[in-house]
Amino acid sequence: MATPPPYPRAHGLLDGKVTLVTAAAGAGIGYAAARRCAEEGATVVVSDRHERRLGEAAEALAELTGVKPLAVPCDVTSETEVQALFEAVEQAHGRLDVVVNNAGLGGTARLVDMTDEQWDVVLDVTLTGTMRCTRAALRRMVPQGSGVIVNNSSVIGWRAQEGQAHYAAAKAGVMALTRCAAVEAAPHGIRVNAVAPSLAMHPFLAKVTSDELLAELTAREAFGRSAEPWEVANVIVFLASEYSTYMTGEVISVSSRHP
């Protein structure tokens, strides 16, 4: 199995950019994105529905970067909490330059056995939650005439997988939302793009996924290994930076598994 490359050096790609990352607690893509953005000079705000883990993430970022980020608990299924989150960013920093919409929820259920509740909760967090945060971001970025939104989708939005109808539908929806939002936002100087990871390994994923399935998914990857969360975060940083100023409405596959 191939080994991951060395962790990247910072290059100041996001110097001074006020950057909000949702679902940033834990050890997955959200935390990795918050860390990489902070390392690239961004003023980071982190959010998550799990208040204790969010506080731990903020402390860990402070130890790594020397700056403790503003941490605002938020459940993206609540419009009231989403509005409070964006208002807190405005009050603390006066502007908002980048939003990374990372919140999502998976699950496994065959369609014939799936309940409405199982379907609804995945769609509400993963798709509608992304819409709520994208809408809130645009309402603030349009008046300032600038901004970047990066959504976290998945290759499963392109491909079929048994037991994943709700999650695949939600992630395909995030792709469509990204493209439509990009068209509306472009006249205001705002870019909206998405990443579509395949398999990014972190402790929670390892905990909820069987060894057999992980081995099967890993075998499908061109590099013969899962991505490190920071490798996905690197692409998020690129899309948030001035190196991608002519890209909008794009969904970037962070794997070899684009159809």
UniProtKB/TrEMBL annotation:
Domain of life assignment: Bacteria
GO molecular function: oxidoreductase activity, acting on the CH-OH group of donors, NAD or NADP as acceptor
Keyword field contains Oxidoreductase: yes
Presence of the UniProt keyword Oxidoreductase in the record: yes
PROSITE patterns: ADH_SHORT
Keyword terms of this UniProt record: Oxidoreductase
GO biological process: fatty acid elongation
A Pfam family of this chain: adh_short_C2
Family designation: Belongs to the short-chain dehydrogenases/reductases (SDR) family.
Name of protein: Short chain dehydrogenase
Source species of the chain: Streptosporangium minutum
Lineage: Bacteria, Bacillati, Actinomycetota, Actinomycetes, Streptosporangiales
